[in-house]
């Protein structure tokens, strides 16, 4: 019973309370508790309906939020492009707008502080040296 779905549980409660109502003369000492279960069943059904409505509402709001974010991203990209156009793509002022100024392109394989090594000597050069 612990692994039942809510629907199975509610159906079980309905069947139980209906059977108890039909046999109320045999079970008068349980009538108060049967009434409590009927009340809980009604409350559970109301909450289930409310949960379904909120789920649908949540899905609709999620769609709206997605649209707003998509439009906002486009607008933010447009504004960033305008800032770069105004100040230039290499201006340090761009940092204020959380944009990276263009500082040149690093050449692949070279470090800024180390000199470039010359070409490696060929085996012929070694043999010609006495």
How are the elements arranged and paired?
Layout: H1 6-22, H2 31-87, H3 123-128
Helix pairs in contact: 1-2
Describe this structure in words.
This protein has 130 residues and is mainly α. The protein has one domain (6-103). The protein has 3 helices and no strands. It has helices at 6-22, 31-87, 123-128. Helix 1 (6-22) runs antiparallel to helix 2 (31-87). The N and C termini lie far apart (96 Å). The relative contact order is 0.05. The mean pLDDT is 88.
Q: What would a concise description of this structure say?
A:
With 130 residues, the protein is mostly helical.
CA radius of gyration is 38 Å
Q: Helix count, per DSSP?
A: 3
Q: Beta-strand percentage?
A: under 5%
The main pleated sheet reads as: none
- When the domains are counted, the total is 1
Calculate the terminal CA-CA distance, rounded to whole Å: 96 Å
Order of helices and strands: HHH
Task: Please describe the structure with a list of short key phrases separated by commas or semicolons.
mainly alpha, elongated, 130 residues
